[in-house]
Amino acid sequence: xxxxxxxxxxxxxxxxxxxxxxxxxxxxxxxxxxxxxxxxxxxxxxxxxxxxxxxxxxxxxxxxxxxxxxxxxxxxxxxxxxxxxxxxxxxxxxxxxxxxxxxxxxxxxxxxxxxxxx
Length: 118
Prior knowledge:
Elements: H1 2-25, E1 36-43, E2 49-55, E3 58-65, E4 68-76, H2 96-113
Antiparallel strand pairs: 1-2, 2-3, 3-4
């Protein structure tokens, strides 16, 4: 009974090690010279997205919906990197609680500053 349990533990350990290595060293992790890169995306509906894709030195703005991809705009890629988020959104720490509290404070200031009463 002890040999069977040890063999089973060994097999489970090997499976866990292999899955970790596949996630860590899997395909597509070390591609430095990619010709296609997703710069950013945002949802504009339930299943619709606007995606900015960089192909060589060109940015393509694409509309992606159910099985359809439409080119909305094409522009040259900027030389400098995109701007970081405003300082008010940069988290003091890396915890979710700090970022969430900061976002709540920021949003509360915006809604109260518009003159709307609660």
